[in-house]
User: Which sequence fits this backbone?
């Protein structure tokens, strides 16, 4: 039997390389004897993948139900009996697809429900709008319609429009009531008022045998608005699940040693202070912990920004985001609050959040301007017509038509639709926006500050190329393959696939020893190999009887870093680097990226202080970072971006998370945000002009239902189309192969 | 014009039937995985579940 080719049988997507599998036991849900697990599958794209994955998993013993959702990439498995959940992941992974368990959780379901109820409200409003509009046409265009027929049509319109408005308008009514209860005005207040007064006026007109009814207006208004709300909810859910998928790639489980000494996999969120954990080599800590025993080295890049791994010692506190490199560690979980670093970062985060919540959204500002102005006009119109001797019913009719025709619709759609379209475009670029007002803040940025390690640079050290190595690189790689140390891995990457030396032993925090063609060989720190101490950012390699040779490593900047910095400068934005790493490495990265302003050895506090100083100087700075040490700065900055590999705290503190290798996304995000701000301003300007024209018409008593219908739908359509210009005018994709 | 008394409710009823059909399709999960359903129909084995 020949082995099945890895990955998609139709070669539509590249196969995933085998990766270490996390024990997914913590994510298994058990309900009346049936266990279920949701797995995120990457690389599945066609019918062949579907059959291959579902077939393989359903052959595992005890599996009842397997369903792969190709649209979302989630695989749902249900089984009975003793099947180890790990086996399911292994089976998917062995087929050449990326597999990681994820937590479906409650928020996801809540979002799906909101989205669905908005969709149903939207189709109900659309159904009512279409039918009532056609019924209204009969009244508008018929030359000699009898009063009885007109009354019939009006009553039928009421029969459709009133229940539809009551149903589809709920999201707006609820929000308006909540807003008024807090003594604030949001856009839902004028919307609810216009809808209810339009229906009230129409019912009155129908009852007294009048000709002007507005049954079409409320449902049409709701229909347009619900399209915007639905698109917004759908995008939010997509962004949320994509961001969740990113998070699923990070450690979310831990191995806990129970009282009986048995190791079990638990969710990171279930770990309590005092729990004993085992951190295997290569595992990333999901919680803060104190080292109890085990000699190893830890990669602290995400915590401090330093590229150089540090040797671990008993009693040391390792923070979440640290990666254990060489040997298993026994640790005891500590509560985050008790830690000075975490407590400091927590305070920084809190301060930043408070400052951000004072930001007022453009749409809210518009509502605050619009509501008093239009409603005062309506009241003045009523009083004016009364003074000129109009009947109260006629004056009330004019006041209500002012409310209807000024149509909060265009104004209410102006900002959210632009945000939806912009967020959708960023979503396709691999950037996940946390909130709509984040876009507004990003648009005003005039200073961008990059963290170095893992943000401006690739994070993984790269072997500095040197011309002649006499085949030493290949020999060193035979030892390096046994180690997870970042420098060893850099050597392996440079050397490519090959053999492993004999009798390989890893000496934690020092190096690797072994035998190459019978001769003892060593790869590691200067002292381990036995040469005089030199700057430590080198790895020494020695074979018995020959002179030791050094390998040097660089933290290379991303290939598009210089280009991105250039693009930002061209947009009138200043660029700086703020890093926790040492001077020499920061200087080299700054030179490679073409950045003149840089600060090295920054602590979490000094990063936040730096941003505060910039703000005092009147600059609107955007922080781009990934590490724990960036979290305070991310929260403090005017706007912030986190990379997909960032630690949880940093991701939560950010306005936007971008995935992928490309740094140029940062420039694209600012470009899209600026374009979005232009579209929003155009939309508000248009809505204002429309109202300036429409209000005199309504005040003069000239706004018939036909005029109102044309005005409302035309203004909404203009605003909508203008928003969608953002999606159409896409830049050519700059992510050329590299 | 008396025919309107029949025609208008008939039209509304047809529209409402379409609306109900859509809401039913939505609630029974037929829009959960459009991409998967499009390729699932090509498979020759029909697994239960």
Assistant:
């Amino acid at each position: 039997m020949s082995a099945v080719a890895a990955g998609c049988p139709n070669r539509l997507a590249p196969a995933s390389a085998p990766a270490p599998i996390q024990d997914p036991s913590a994510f298994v849900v058990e309900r009346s004897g049936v266990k279920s697990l949701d797995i995120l599958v990457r690389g599945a794209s066609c019918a062949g993948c579907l059959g291959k994955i579902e077939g393989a998993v359903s052959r595992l013993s005890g599996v009842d139900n397997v369903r792969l959702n190709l649209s979302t990439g989630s695989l749902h498995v249900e089984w009975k009996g003793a099947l180890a959940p790990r086996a399911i992941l292994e089976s998917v992974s062995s087929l050449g697809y990326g597999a990681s368990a994820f937590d479906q959780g409650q928020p996801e379901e809540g979002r799906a429900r909101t989205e669905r109820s908005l969709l149903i409200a939207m189709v109900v409003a659309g159904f009512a709008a279409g039918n009532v509009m056609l019924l209204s046409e009969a009244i508008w265009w018929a030359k000699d319609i009898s009063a009885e027929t007109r009354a019939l049509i009006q009553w039928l319109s009421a029969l459709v429009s009133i229940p539809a408005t009551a149903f589809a308008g709920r999201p707006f009514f609820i929000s308006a009531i909540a807003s008024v209860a807090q003594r604030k005005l949001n856009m839902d207040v004028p919307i609810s008022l216009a809808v209810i007064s339009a229906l009230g006026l129409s019912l009155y007109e129908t009852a007294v045998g009048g000709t002007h009814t507005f049954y079409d207006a409320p449902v049409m208004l709701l229909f347009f608005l619900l399209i915007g709300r639905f698109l917004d909810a759908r995008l939010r859910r997509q962004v949320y699940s994509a961001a969740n998928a990113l998070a699923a790639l990070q450690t979310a489980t831990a191995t806990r040693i129970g009282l009986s000494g048995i190791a079990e996999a638990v969710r990171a969120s279930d770990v309590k202070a005092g729990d004993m954990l085992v951190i295997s080599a290569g595992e990333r800590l999901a919680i803060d912990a104190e080292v109890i025993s085990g000699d190893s080295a830890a990669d602290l890049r995400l915590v401090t920004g330093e590229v150089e791994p540090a040797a671990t010692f008993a009693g040391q506190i390792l923070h979440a985001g640290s990666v254990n490199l060489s040997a298993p560690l026994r640790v005891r979980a500590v509560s985050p609050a008790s830690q000075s670093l975490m407590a400091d970062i927590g305070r920084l985060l809190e301060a930043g959040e408070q400052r951000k919540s004072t930001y007022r959204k453009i749409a809210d500002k518009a509502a605050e301007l619009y509501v008093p102005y239009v409603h005062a006009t309506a009241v003045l119109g009523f009083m004016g017509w009364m003074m000129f001797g109009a009947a109260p019913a006629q004056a009330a009719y004019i006041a209500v038509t002012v409310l209807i025709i000024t149509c909060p619709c265009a104004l209410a759609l102006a900002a959210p639709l632009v945000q939806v379209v912009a967020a959708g475009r960023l979503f396709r670029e691999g950037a996940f926006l946390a909130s709509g007002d984040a876009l507004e803040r990003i648009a005003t940025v005039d200073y961008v500050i990059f963290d170095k390690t893992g943000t401006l640079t690739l994070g993984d050290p790269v072997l500095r190329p040197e011309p002649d190595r006499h085949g030493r690189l290949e020999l060193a790689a035979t030892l390096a393959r046994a180690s997870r140390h970042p420098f060893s891995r850099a050597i392996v990457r440079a050397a490519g696939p090959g053999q492993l030396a004999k009798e390989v032993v890893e000496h934690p925090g020092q190096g690797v020893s072994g035998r190459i063609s019978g001769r003892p060989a060593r790869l590691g720190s200067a002292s381990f190999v036995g040469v005089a101490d030199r700057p430590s950012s080198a790895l020494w390699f020695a074979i018995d009887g020959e002179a030791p040779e050094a390998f040097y490593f660089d933290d290379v900047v991303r290939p598009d870093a210089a280009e991105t910095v250039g693009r930002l400068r061209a947009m009138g934005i200043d660029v700086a680097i703020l890093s926790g790493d040492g001077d020499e490495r920061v200087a080299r990265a700054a030179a490679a990226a073409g950045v003149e302003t840089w600060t090295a050895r920054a602590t979490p506090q000094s990063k936040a202080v730096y941003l505060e100083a910039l703000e005092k100087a009147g600059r609107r700075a955007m922080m781009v970072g990934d590490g724990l040490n960036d979290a305070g700065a991310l929260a403090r900055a005017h706007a912030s971006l986190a990379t997909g590999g960032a630690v949880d705290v940093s991701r939560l503190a950010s306005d936007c998370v971008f995935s992928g290798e490309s740094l140029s996304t940062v420039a694209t995000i600012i470009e899209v945000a600026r374009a979005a701000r232009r579209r929003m301003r155009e939309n508000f300007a248009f809505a204002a002009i429309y109202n300036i024209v429409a209000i005199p018409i309504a005040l003069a008593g000239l706004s018939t239902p036909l005029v109102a219908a044309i005005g409302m739908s035309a203004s909404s359509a203009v605003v909508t189309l203008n928003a969608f210009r953002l999606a159409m005018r896409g830049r050519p994709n700059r992510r050329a192969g590299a | 014009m008396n025919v309107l008394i029949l025609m208008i409710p008939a039209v509304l009823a047809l529209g409402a039937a379409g609306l109900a059909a859509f809401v039913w399709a939505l609630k029974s999960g037929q829009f959960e995985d459009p991409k998967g359903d499009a390729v699932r129909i090509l498979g020759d084995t029909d697994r239960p579940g």
About this structure: The interface with chain B takes residues 46-47, 50-51, 54, 58, 64-72, 116, 119-120, 123-124, 127, 130-131, 135, 146, 149, 152-153, 156, 160 of chain A (CB under 8 Å). The mean pLDDT of chain A is 81. Chain A has five domains: 24-102, 109-241+361-419+675-728, 253-285+289-334, 431-458+558-659, 462-554.
